[in-house]
């Protein structure tokens, strides 16, 4: 049953849940350390917890289908009108909506080698053709990507910073790319890890949205805001694009607890700052250890690092399994074509230390 391109889809492989690892390896659940899904090691902000608890009183009612309060909070924060915003059930929802809204079967979608896997899945799910452009230094080669845009290309996905490699594109390069792309091609700049960028690297992509009617900026509440389990993401773009995303989304795609928590988290500057600080320190802790172990890693601008754990193609899977046996969950990236590497999320200092100690033992 179903079209060939749907049957050929490989399901998204998420990080192994803690309970599953505990069962599989006979470990105490409370001792397992998960550094596998680029989650926030601080958990959720207290402000969001309180907002959610209040929202529980109304759980018998449907959520606000238009997410008025949340859009108002996003609008205030980013200085765009509310009809320039579409809410998603996580930013994965936004990525999928973009593929459904702008691409027909057999048309093409451009993204980079080592680009976030959901780009490939969303492309295939609509029966479109993927144009995967070879990476440059583990990141996007924007010139090659602009050159790869074909007559039938309708969508380009770019992650900045990129997952799983952690690479970053400076604002000037991105802006030059946007100028080079024909306006009938929609560009999604996926900024899931934007909040981890230091002040000197920050750029205002929401300003570009005013200039480029074919641009969608995608953001998530799953990372620095600490709300991964609630599933909230959003798209910012001109109404010509956000309205189409809005028409095809499910009417109640963001639930009421998630909306309430997201409003609170968006304005919780102290939590956001702490998340960035904990991440910057933890990142340093990890790369210092990699340096002293003589391990190669890709310098990262996100809340994770890609590290090379061996020279043979079995290395990633082998070291991953050894870590699992010690109760540490990281992410093998063989499915990204990086079988010698592991992606590790930056955790709390003691979590990073436990990971480093385990890795040291395993690598001898
Ligand atoms: N984009 C990128 C680049 C990501 O790494 C992720 C999370 N792994 C997402 C989007 C999706 O996150 P969410 O659906 O939780 O917003």
UniProtKB/TrEMBL annotation:
Species of provenance: Herbaspirillum hiltneri N3
Subunit structure: Homodimer.
HAMAP family given in the database record: HisC_aminotrans_2
Reaction catalysis annotation: L-histidinol phosphate + 2-oxoglutarate = 3-(imidazol-4-yl)-2-oxopropyl phosphate + L-glutamate
Similarity-based family: Belongs to the class-II pyridoxal-phosphate-dependent aminotransferase family. Histidinol-phosphate aminotransferase subfamily.
Enzyme Commission number(s) from the entry: 2.6.1.9
Cofactor(s) the protein requires to work: pyridoxal 5'-phosphate
UniProt name for this protein: Histidinol-phosphate aminotransferase
